[in-house]
């Protein structure tokens, strides 16, 4: 209340707030000032201002005066004729000095001034004095666009000496000001051109020089200058400094000015300080708009602070501000990065319902988020939806979904999209090629992987460490350790350095191929090479021992890891959990889960899935349900695997009500059933005599292109035959023959 009283009594009272800006542009002190409540004059009222000089060009000789008079009369009387025809008799005698003298005679006719100047420019580039005069006349005629163009054209000349030209231009613009225009916006125009051309130091010099003449440049021009400064990270400190200094000398900042500074402070990573400026902006009488809020929301979104983002959106809505595309984009990015894809898709729907068309960046963010969670079906659906809206996927979009297909082993789909991308003229980069190569390596299709590697090199792209690591990993999985070593030697010859990820990948490959002894030896070699094994190395080896049933050795590695001060991750515990479950040691697995919760180590869906799967196999659905409820109570979001495990378990136990509910829930979240889950559901409904539900699922399964079991095909062939649906009966018979007989033949040939 005290500060409010002070503001009411002293509108120009200055409030300082110190913000330490970090080491980017240096340690600077930035002062936020209250702005004046009344309008400031364009010119300052100081009596010490320097006056503009009088214009006094050299006088024409008698002969020149006669020629100037003749030209002036001719173009005035014959103004509607082309000037080149009117001035043809005078061309041979016309000199640059004549241009200024003629302009003196026709200055009151703005259109004639421009036409005559254009004619002169076609013959010879006019001197700078003439150009400044025409700029002054244009500004005085309120034709700021032409004034801006004439000024910009001068600074676009090649091989211009910036320092010398700036001094000369300023001198002549000041010299011609008083007699040729006296419109202060002419200096705004020059200031804007300098800012747009990136001549920001010269722009600041002009601003300071105009203060000596009692002129303060307009807030719009100053906003442009701040924007140009804030777009360059190294000049952010200059922007902050200018914001405070310009206010002191009379620039009356507006809402757009505050938005620029909020953006500037956010770029420095000072989101809380930017938020403070938003609050101060409102206290000073400037109403924050959707841009103000969206900038802060984007800043908090990049910090992952969801609650603050939601609070700001609520605050926006209370003030009647509608989120724009940028706002929604920030929210969707945050939700995707935190794995909340379902919520992110809801935001997308809300956005479209409000009539705001999402761009390809928003769809690419969502596609990437779905792929990270392994929900490639949802990602592909979004990809198709994006194309349906005539949004053109770019390289990043294609790379995201290709990578998603590769991660889930769907290489046919990944390759198809790769060729589609090429057909649209998009050139894949190293990331795209590496994603495909890694996918083929994981699928043990090394011939395809090396073919892509060679094609990549032919395209002039240089494989990176990740590319070679993927190839080495694939070779190791096939037991071709010597070939992998040769590849890594080639990598070193090309100047690429092995890193911990490369070693870990080879360790992983050796473990996958069953060479655990060799993997343990490589771990010792890592220490010698200066790359001590990390958590990933130990987790990979523990996983290998757990899968081979050697839980004692897995425990020994865990103890060694802890002794070295390495912190296990949730993946480490998942490896142990999987080992316990595969070995039938469910009680140990449940004790491990309890211990994790007691120690504050948050399990994920994979942790629970191991236990759920084993209890479902044992047909112990009561315990399964209890574990699932405990999982949800901990805030763990079920993934696609969770739903498929539960649906198969409940279907096998003939708990069809629960299985059907889970099926609808997972579809609602964008997950898809596996063929095994469909088969289990359909057989469960058939056993319960729920033929309508079974048929509905069978048709759904066929639409998804998934393979039903033989007995299911036999059942629906008989049903349709009995119903007299001969066309569908024959269609199912053909489908079954193709899938079972042709499929078997292909398997034998492969």
Automatic annotation (TrEMBL):
<keyword id="KW-0677">Repeat</keyword>
<dbReference type="Pfam" id="PF13041">
    <property type="entry name" value="PPR_2"/>
</dbReference>
<dbReference type="InterPro" id="IPR002885">
    <property type="entry name" value="PPR_rpt"/>
</dbReference>
<feature type="repeat" description="PPR">
    <location>
        <begin position="639"/>
        <end position="673"/>
    </location>
</feature>
<protein>
    <recommendedName>
        <fullName>Pentatricopeptide repeat-containing protein</fullName>
    </recommendedName>
</protein>
<dbReference type="Pfam" id="PF01535">
    <property type="entry name" value="PPR"/>
</dbReference>
<feature type="repeat" description="PPR">
    <location>
        <begin position="359"/>
        <end position="393"/>
    </location>
</feature>
<comment type="similarity">
    <text>Belongs to the PPR family. P subfamily.</text>
</comment>
<feature type="repeat" description="PPR">
    <location>
        <begin position="464"/>
        <end position="498"/>
    </location>
</feature>
<feature type="repeat" description="PPR">
    <location>
        <begin position="289"/>
        <end position="323"/>
    </location>
</feature>
<feature type="repeat" description="PPR">
    <location>
        <begin position="499"/>
        <end position="533"/>
    </location>
</feature>
<dbReference type="InterPro" id="IPR011990">
    <property type="entry name" value="TPR-like_helical_dom_sf"/>
</dbReference>
<feature type="repeat" description="PPR">
    <location>
        <begin position="674"/>
        <end position="708"/>
    </location>
</feature>
<feature type="repeat" description="PPR">
    <location>
        <begin position="254"/>
        <end position="288"/>
    </location>
</feature>
<feature type="repeat" description="PPR">
    <location>
        <begin position="569"/>
        <end position="603"/>
    </location>
</feature>
<feature type="repeat" description="PPR">
    <location>
        <begin position="394"/>
        <end position="428"/>
    </location>
</feature>
<feature type="repeat" description="PPR">
    <location>
        <begin position="324"/>
        <end position="358"/>
    </location>
</feature>
<dbReference type="Pfam" id="PF12854">
    <property type="entry name" value="PPR_1"/>
</dbReference>
<feature type="repeat" description="PPR">
    <location>
        <begin position="183"/>
        <end position="217"/>
    </location>
</feature>
<feature type="repeat" description="PPR">
    <location>
        <begin position="534"/>
        <end position="568"/>
    </location>
</feature>
<feature type="repeat" description="PPR">
    <location>
        <begin position="429"/>
        <end position="463"/>
    </location>
</feature>
């Amino acid at each position: 209340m005290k500060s409010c009283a002070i503001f009411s009594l002293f509108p120009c009272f200055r409030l300082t707030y110190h913000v330490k800006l970090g080491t980017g542009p240096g340690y600077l002190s930035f002062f936020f000032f209250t702005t004046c409540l009344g309008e400031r004059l364009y010119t300052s009222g100081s009596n010490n201002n320097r006056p503009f000089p009088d214009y006094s060009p050299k006088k024409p000789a008698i002969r020149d005066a006669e020629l100037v008079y003749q030209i002036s009369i001719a173009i005035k009387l014959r103004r509607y004729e082309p000037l080149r025809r009117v001035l043809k008799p005078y061309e041979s005698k016309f000199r640059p000095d004549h241009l200024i003298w003629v302009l003196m005679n026709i200055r009151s006719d703005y259109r004639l001034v421009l036409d005559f100047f254009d004619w002169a420019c076609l013959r010879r580039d006019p001197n700078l004095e003439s150009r400044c005069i025409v700029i002054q006349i244009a500004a005085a005629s309120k034709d700021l666009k032409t004034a801006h163009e004439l000024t910009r054209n001068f600074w676009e000349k090649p091989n211009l000496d910036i320092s010398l030209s700036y001094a000369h231009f300023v001198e002549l613009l000041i010299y011609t000001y008083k007699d040729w225009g006296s419109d202060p916006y002419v200096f705004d125009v020059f200031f804007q051109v300098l800012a747009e051309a990136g001549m920001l130091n010269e722009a600041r010099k002009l601003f300071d020089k105009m203060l000596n003449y009692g002129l303060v440049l307009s807030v719009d021009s100053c906003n442009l200058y701040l924007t140009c400064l804030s777009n360059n990270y190294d000049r952010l400190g200059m922007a902050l400094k200018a914001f405070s200094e310009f206010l002191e000398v009379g620039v009356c900042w507006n809402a757009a000015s505050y938005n620029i500074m909020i953006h500037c402070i956010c770029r420095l990573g000072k989101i809380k300080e930017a938020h403070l400026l938003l609050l101060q902006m409102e206290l000073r009488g400037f109403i924050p708009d959707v841009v103000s809020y969206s900038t802060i929301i984007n800043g908090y979104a990049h910090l992952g602070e969801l609650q603050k983002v939601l609070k700001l959106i609520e605050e926006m809505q209370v003030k009647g501000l509608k989120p724009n595309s940028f706002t929604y984009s920030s929210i969707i990015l945050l939700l995707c990065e935190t794995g909340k894809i379902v919520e992110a898709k809801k935001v997308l729907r809300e956005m479209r319902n409000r009539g705001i068309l999402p761009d390809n960046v928003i769809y690419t963010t969502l596609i990437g988020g779905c792929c990270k969670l392994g929900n490639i079906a949802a990602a592909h659906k979004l990809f198709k939806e994006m194309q349906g809206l005539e949004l053109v996927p770019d390289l990043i979009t294609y790379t995201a979904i290709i990578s998603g297909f590769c991660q889930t082993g769907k290489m046919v789909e990944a390759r198809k999209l790769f060729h589609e991308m090429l057909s649209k003229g998009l050139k894949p980069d190293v990331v795209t090629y590496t994603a495909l190569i890694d996918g083929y390596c994981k699928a043990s299709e090394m011939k395809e992987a090396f073919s892509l590697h060679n094609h990549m090199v032919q395209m002039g792209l240089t494989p990176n460490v990740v590319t070679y690591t993927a190839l080495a990993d694939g070779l190791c999985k096939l037991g071709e350790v010597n070939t992998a070593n040769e590849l890594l030697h080639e990598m070193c010859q090309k100047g690429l350095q092995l890193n911990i990820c490369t070693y870990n990948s080879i360790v992983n490959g050796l473990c996958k191929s069953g060479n655990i002894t060799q993997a343990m030896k490589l771990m010792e070699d890592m220490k010698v090479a200066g790359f001590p094994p990390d958590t990933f190395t130990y987790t990979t080896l523990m996983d290998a021992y757990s899968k081979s049933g050697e839980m004692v050795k897995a425990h020994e590695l865990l103890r060694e890891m802890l002794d070295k001060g390495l912190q296990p991750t949730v993946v480490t515990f998942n490896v142990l959990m999987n080992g316990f479950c595969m070995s039938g040691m469910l009680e140990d697995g449940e004790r491990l889960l309890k211990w994790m919760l007691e120690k504050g180590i948050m399990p994920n869906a994979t942790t629970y899935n191991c236990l759920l799967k084993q209890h479902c196999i044992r047909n112990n659905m009561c315990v399964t349900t209890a574990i699932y409820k405990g999982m949800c109570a901990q805030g763990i979001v079920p993934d696609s695997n969770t739903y498929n495990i539960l649906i198969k378990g409940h279907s096998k136990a003939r708990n069809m009500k629960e299985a059907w509910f889970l099926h609808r829930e997972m579809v609602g979240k964008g997950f898809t059933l596996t063929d095994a889950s469909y088969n289990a559901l359909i057989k469960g409904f058939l056993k319960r005599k729920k033929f309508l539900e079974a048929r509905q699922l069978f048709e759904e399964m066929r639409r998804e292109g998934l393979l039903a079991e033989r007995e299911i095909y036999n059942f629906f062939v008989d049903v349709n035959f009995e119903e007299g649906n001969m066309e569908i009966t024959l269609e199912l018979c053909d489908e079954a023959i193709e899938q079972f007989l042709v499929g078997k033949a292909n398997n034998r040939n492969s």
